[in-house]
Amino acid sequence: MVVAASLVVVAGTVVGVLAAFDDGGRTSDEAGSPEVSASPRPAPPPAVPTPSAPATTVSAPPSPSPSARRTTTPTPSKPVKKREHRTAAAGRLYRHPDSQVLEWVRSHPGDARHAVIASRIAEQPAAVWFADYSPDTVTARVAAVTSGGAALGRVPVLVPYAIPGRDCGGHSQGGAPGLDAYDAWIDRFAAGLGSGEVVVVLEPDSLAQAECLSAGERADRFASLARAGRVLKAANPRARVYFDAGHSGWNAPGKQAAWLRQAGAASPESSDGIFSNVSNFHTTADEVAYDRRVLDALGGPASLGAVIDTSRNGNGAPADGEWCDPAGRKLGRTPTLSTGEARIDAYLWVKLPGESDGCKGRPGTFTASYAYDLASS
């Protein structure tokens, strides 16, 4: 068994901070944010199934169930000149000043684990998740992050995570009430992107976990994702948008590439490439090899590349398939936009190390003991 992608569900512009949990029962080992709600989920897909493998057992199908392909008019975009492959962005990655790990560091200066967690995790840039459906405020919240990065000449990483029926109705279910609402939410998200360099990790699990949808539902979701890519890149031509490729222990490259192609990931109007290993543990070497196979199968211009979540993959995935805060893991490569690997644009920390999957702490919360184990291994 393998875990899907992210067990993080974040509301607002704070890295790793989500919607409210009851504060009761918190221990001093956990960050004290009042806004957390993320849950682990089972790991349904088998390791590297063949393209013809039967549908995997997953949670109940998501709520949207359109009977025919949606007819939303695609957002027009300017022609994109053919270009050679380039590095994802030129600047340094942005560390947002608010996150659960920074909250813990600030409130536990005398903790014996403080120095290790502060230096090895809190000082590293990590992605900022937008997982709540709050259309009235999303533009301002995105703008707060992108303007913060621009002011420092650094590149923020943003994760829109509001596709309807996300997680196939499992523990991280939620998102917009329907695809039309999602399209409107993406429009507002894009309005906050500004004009500086930014990396967008578009909807973890939205493609790799699409097996639970009917053919019609998949087509509708893929159309919305293709539209989202066009909208994001039209709003900010310096935005680099990456689509969900799962990870090396999940779908076969050909199968994943077929879904990516249907979702517009081969078109430079929508996409700069793919992302993999979000919240997972597979080694960087395995992900590099897998992503190149997916890109080869995907086709498209040579400019398409991949970004890899290296936040917790220093020891690779557990041999027993454990996905919930498995023991013996460690931090992976530090985030960078200069990998030295052909077609690999960046190593990113999309999942914030130390945020629990639900076994060593409450789901989605920063748990110091888990963070320390990762950082000191």
Give an overview in words.
The chain is α/β, with parallel strands linked by helices and 377 residues long. It is 26% helix and 9% strand. It has eight helices and nine strands. It has helices at 100-107, 114-122, 138-152, 179-190, 215-235, 253-262, 284-298, 368-376; strands at residues 92-93, 128-130, 154-155, 157-160, 198-201, 239-244, 273-276, 305-309, 344-348. It has a seven-stranded parallel sheet, covered by helices on one side. Helix 7 (284-298) links the parallel strand 7 and strand 8. Helix 2 crosses helix 8, helix 4 (179-190) packs parallel to helix 5 and helix 6 crosses helix 7. The radius of gyration is 19 Å and the shape is globular. 55% of the residues are buried.
Entry keywords:
377 residues; alpha/beta; seven-stranded parallel sheet; 9 strands; globular
What is the succession of H and E elements?
EHHEHEEHEHEHEHEEH
Which class do the helix and strand fractions yield?
alpha/beta
Gyration radius, rounded = 19 Å
Shape, please?
Answer: globular
Q: How far apart, in Å, are the first and last alpha carbons?
A: 24 Å
Largest sheet: 7 strands, parallel
Helix content: 25-40%
Query: What's the rounded overall pLDDT mean?
Result: 82
Question: Care to give the gist of this entry?
Answer:
26% of the residues lie in helices and 9% in strands.
Secondary structure: elements and pairs:
Blueprint: E1 92-93, H1 100-107, H2 114-122, E2 128-130, H3 138-152, E3 154-155, E4 157-160, H4 179-190, E5 198-201, H5 215-235, E6 239-244, H6 253-262, E7 273-276, H7 284-298, E8 305-309, E9 344-348, H8 368-376
Helix pairs in contact: 2-8, 4-5, 6-7
